[in-house]
């Protein structure tokens, strides 16, 4: 019988000092020690799944008006957008080499935080409300912003997808959160199932904020 992605990653991580295994999931031991989520194929799959939801809600892979520039071949720095599987939708194969300080467009996806855990790691989860201000302090001009709403566990297909993503997200964070909260895996699962059941019952929705701007031309 073939090994599952998580089990094969566990074996690799046990001999790789860059990773550690917690609850059969692979986590980085170096780099950003605030990151709550695993670094394995299961998490990459979840990020692809999450991207499909964002694309449905926003009706696009991105919102910045750069499609014409992309067709001309500008260089793009894509930050925090998961596996980047959408690069193959309308473009050439992914470029594997970046030239530093030569990017014309930077795309940053939003994050789905868990308040208690992020605060414990000194992560600011309110930054999205200051996106316009932050872009302004970075000297960008022509700043545009908007927001979209996404149902979780109700309102048809998109709601079903959204709650599926939330279920996977909580599962990804279980190895870290269950320990931090002093819960057994069974207790953690019970609490999360109650939360997820309540989403559809109470018609929960989340709001996604987005903003973009352009670099000023320097004559």
Structure characteristics:
219 residues; 6 strands; alpha+beta; two-stranded antiparallel sheet; Methyltransferase type 11 domain-containing protein; 8 helices; two-stranded parallel sheet; single chain
Order of helices and strands: HEEHHEHEHHEHHE
Radius of gyration: 19 Å
How are the strands ordered across the major sheet? Answer: 1-2
How would a crystallographer describe the biggest sheet? Answer: 2 strands, antiparallel
Query: How many strands appear in the DSSP assignment?
Result: 6
Average pLDDT, rounded to a whole number, is 79
Sheet-strand content, in percent, reads 15-25%
Can you tell me the number of structural domains? Answer: 1
Give the overall silhouette: globular
What does this structure look like?
42% of the residues lie in helices and 17% in strands. The chain has helices spanning 5-14, 41-58, 67-72, 87-90, 115-120, 131-137, 157-180, 185-201; strands at 19-22, 25-28, 76-79, 105-108, 141-151, 205-214. The strands form three sheets. It has a two-stranded antiparallel sheet. A two-stranded parallel ribbon has the order 3-4. Helix 4 (87-90) links the parallel strand 3 (76-79) and strand 4. The protein starts with a helix and ends in a 5-residue tail after the last strand. The relative contact order is 0.15. Mean pLDDT is 79; it is low at 90-101 and 105-113.
């Amino acid at each position: 019988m073939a090994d599952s992605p998580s089990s094969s990653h566990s074996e690799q991580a046990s001999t790789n000092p860059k990773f550690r295994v917690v609850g059969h999931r692979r986590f980085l031991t170096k780099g950003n020690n605030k990151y709550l989520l695993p670094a394995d194929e299961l998490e990459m799959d979840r990020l692809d799944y999450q991207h499909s939801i964002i694309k449905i809600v926003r009706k696009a892979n991105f919102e910045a008006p750069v499609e014409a520039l992309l067709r001309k071949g500008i260089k793009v720095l894509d930050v925090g957008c998961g596996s980047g599987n959408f690069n193959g939708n309308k473009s050439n194969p992914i470029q594997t080499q970046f030239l530093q300080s030569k990017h014309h467009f930077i795309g940053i996806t939003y994050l789905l935080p868990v308040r208690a855990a992020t605060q414990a790691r000194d992560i600011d989860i309110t930054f999205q409300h200051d996106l316009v201000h932050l872009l302004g302090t970075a000297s960008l001009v022509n700043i545009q912003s908007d927001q979209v709403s996404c149902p979780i566990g109700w309102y048809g297909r998109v709601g079903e997808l959204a709650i599926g993503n939330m279920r996977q997200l909580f599962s990804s964070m279980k190895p870290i959160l269950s320990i931090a909260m002093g819960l057994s895996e069974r207790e953690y699962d019970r609490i999360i199932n109650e939360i997820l059941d309540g989403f559809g019952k109470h018609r929960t929705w989340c709001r996604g904020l987005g903003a973009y701007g352009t670099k000023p031309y320097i004559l």
